[in-house]
Amino acid sequence: MSKQKPTRLKARAPRGFADRGPAEIAATREMTETIRRVYELYGYEPVETPAIEYTDALGKFLPDQDRPNEGVFSFQDDDEQWLSLRYDLTAPLARYVAENYQHLALPYRSYRAGYVFRNEKPGPGRFRQFMQFDADTVGSGSPAADAEICMMAADTLEALGIPRGDYVIKVNNRKVLDGVMEEIGIGGNENAGVRLAVMRSIDKLDKFSEADVALLLTTGRKDESGDFTKGAGLSAEQAAEIISKVRRYEGSNTDVLAAIRGTGEASARRSEGIDELTEIAKIVEGAGYGNDRIRIDPSVVRGLEYYTGPVFEAELLIETKDEKGRPVRFGSVGGGGRYDGLVSRFRPEPVPATGFSIGVSRLQAALTMIGKLGAEKTLGPVVVTIFDRDRIADYQRMVQALRGAGIRAELYLGNPKNFGNQMKYADKRNAPCVVIQGGDEKARGEVQIKDLIEGAKAAAAITSHEEYREARSAQFAVPEDKLVEAVREVLARHS
Question: Biological process GO annotation list (predicted)?
Answer without folding.
Answer: histidyl-tRNA aminoacylation
